[in-house]
Amino acid sequence: MDTLRAAIVDGRSSATDDDQFIERLNQLQHEQGPMICRSIFQTLAGVDIPRDTAVDCWRQVVEHRRQLGRVLGRNVDLMTAMCDFLCSETRYLAHPRLVEVNTFERIVYESMYDSLTGLFNRLYFDEAFEHQISLAKRYGTDLSVLFLDVDDFKEINDTHGHIVGDVALKKIGTIIKDSKRDSDLAARYGGEEFVLLMPHTENINAFILADRIRQEVEKEVFTANGLTYRLTISGGLASFPLNATEPAELLQMADSATYMAKGSGKNTICLFKKDKRRYLRVKLTQPVLIKELGFNNSKTYEGTSKDICIGGILFENDTPLPIGAHVQVSITVKDNAPLLLIGTIVRIESFGEKSYDIGMTFSFKEMEKIANFEIAQFLKEGS
C-alpha cells in the first residue's frame, strides 16, 4: 500500500531536487485527497496542523519558498522555507532544531513501525485507517478490518518469560506480513493484539484471508530458548459499509467480534453481527445437491440441509469442502421446484468420519458477481 508517510519519505529520497519533490507531493494530494497535506507537515516538520487548514498552509509554504528564492536570487530548500513559514507566519513551530537526515529518517521510521515485529504501529494505523475510510466513502468501495489476539499469551509470558513471548510475537508478525496482500496494511495494535486493514475487500473475502492467517499460526512450531510450543489466534472481522461507516465504530465492532471468537472456544475467526437474530433462521431438512464452481466436470455431492436464513444455509455432507470455495446448492423447497443458491463456504465443522456441517453464506450481490464470472469463464473456454 502506498501509505501516506511512506509515500512522502519515498518521494523525498527518490526526488532529484525539491522542485521534483514538491511536484510529487502535489500529485499525491490529487490522488489521495487533502489529508496528505496534514501528513506532509507531520512527517517533514513533526507538527500537527488541523486537516481543514493544512491544505492552505501547504499552498502557502510552496508560495513562501518561491518568494524567498526570488528575494535571495537562488533556490531555497523546501525544509528551510517550511521552517521559516511555520515560525514566522504561524504558531505551529515555536522552537525548531536542525536534525541530520539519517537521524530524521530513523525518527520517521520509529514513528511508523513497531520495533519488535516490523509491522506498522498503532499511531500510524489509526491515521491510515481514517484515511482509507475516507477513500472508501469517496469511491463507494468495500473495506474490512480484522482484529487478531494471541490466545493464552499471558501464560507464555508468565511461565517462560517475556523473551520467549517476544519471539512468538515477532514470528506471528512475520506470518501476518507474509500472508497479507500488498494492498493490505498490518499493524501491531498493542501487546499481543494485531490488526489488518483490507481496502477494497468485502467481509467474505476478508474472512477467507483471516482464516488463512489463523491456520498458518496454528500449524507453526515456535521455538525459543530450547522450548518448543504451539500457539493459536482468535480474530474478529468488521466491514465497511456493511457494519459501520465510521472508523471508531468499525474498529469497536471488530474488537467485539474478537471477544465473540474468544468466547466460542478460541482459535477461530468471527464476523461481527450486530444482532444474532437479525434474520429468522428456519429449520429445513431437505435433500440438497452441492457442486463446486470454477472447475470443469466437478463432482456433484449429495447432502441434507439443516437450516436456512436470508443470508446463508447450513447443510450436512459426507465430504469436506474448502473454506472460500464458491459452490452451487440446489434444494427442493415447494412443489418439487428447485431453489438454486450460489455462495461461499465460510464454516466447516466435523462430527466424525464422513460427517460435516458446512455453512455457506450468500447475498444477491455476491450471487450475481459469481454467476457473471462463471458465464464469462464458460464463454472464454468455448471461444
Keywords:
single chain, 383 residues, alpha+beta, Alpha-Beta Plaits, Thrombin, subunit H, six-stranded antiparallel beta barrel, five-stranded mixed beta sheet, 12 helices, 14 strands, 47% helix, 24% strand
The secondary structure category is: alpha+beta
Report the order of strands and helices: HHHHHHHEHHEEHEEEHEEEEEEEEH
Q: Could you report the average pLDDT, rounded to the nearest whole number?
A: 85
- CATH fold field value of the largest domain: Alpha-Beta Plaits
Q: How far from one another are the termini?
A: 37 Å
Q: Can you offer a commentary on this structure?
A:
A six-stranded antiparallel β-barrel has the order 9-10-11-14-13-12. A five-stranded mixed β-sheet has the order 2-3-1-6-7, sandwiched between helices. A two-stranded antiparallel ribbon has the order 4-5. It is an alpha+beta fold. The model has no long low-confidence stretch (mean pLDDT 85). It has three domains: 4-112, no CATH class; 122-271, Alpha-Beta Plaits; 282-382, predicted glycosyltransferase like domains (Thrombin, subunit H, Beta Barrel), CATH 2.40.10.220. It is 47% helix and 24% strand. A hairpin with a 2-residue loop joins strand 4 (222-224) and strand 5 (227-229). The chain contains twelve helices and 14 strands.
